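> forwarded from #structure-qc
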């Protein structure tokens, strides 16, 4: 399998973002988005997927965190899609139930080329510290749309909103790790009867 790495830069009137990913990494991360809780979640995504990630973002945080979080999802998704190329040799599908203390969250992934998000996660408060909880969904919507993945996330139960958010990132990370692994039985094949995972 060829090296699966990519870099993406994105600049708008709202944000300026640069991202690099190395899919076959060791979970090393360098996050500097200006949003502390979001950096913590991106660290989890990198560490548990074993995808090396660097994210640098300058956004209009004087307004709120929305544009920065969403645009990081866009750039990361684009970088993942670019790194995966024609998605040859991947396992493609994965799902996991991930526990953290009182919380249990499921993530299921199809690296299909067809973007779709099903989000069954509810938070009991609008914020975790200063971070808007609704932005967790916004990030994964942007990631799925731009990476070309079908992603289902369901929080079965949980009481602590930090734990709920963190299990979403960790579960998606572990599902990504499994879905992007090389399939030893068909390392040179695109895992689709259509012969393409371009949507």
């Amino acid at each position: 399998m060829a090296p699966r790495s990519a870099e993406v830069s994105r600049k708008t009137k709202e944000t300026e973002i640069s991202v690099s990913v190395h899919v076959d990494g060791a979970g090393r991360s360098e996050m500097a988005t200006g949003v502390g809780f979001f950096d913590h979640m991106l660290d989890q995504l990198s560490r548990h997927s074993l995808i090396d990630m660097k994210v640098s973002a300058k956004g209009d945080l004087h307004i709120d965190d929305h544009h920065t979080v969403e645009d990081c999802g866009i750039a990361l998704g684009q970088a993942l899609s670019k790194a995966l190329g024609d998605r040859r040799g991947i396992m493609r599908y994965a799902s996991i139930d991930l526990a953290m203390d009182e919380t249990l969250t499921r993530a299921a992934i199809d690296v299909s080329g067809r973007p779709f998000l099903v989000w069954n996660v509810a938070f009991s408060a609008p914020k975790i510290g200063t971070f808007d909880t609704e932005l967790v969904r916004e990030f994964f919507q942007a990631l799925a749309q731009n990476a070309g993945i079908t992603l289902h996330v369901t929080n079965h139960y949980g009481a602590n909103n930090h734990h709920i958010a963190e299990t979403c990132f960790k579960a998606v990370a572990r599902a990504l790790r499994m879905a992007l692994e090389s399939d030893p039985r068909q390392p040179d094949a695109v895992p689709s009867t259509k012969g393409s995972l371009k949507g």
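QC bot note: The chain has four helices and ten strands. The mean pLDDT is 94.
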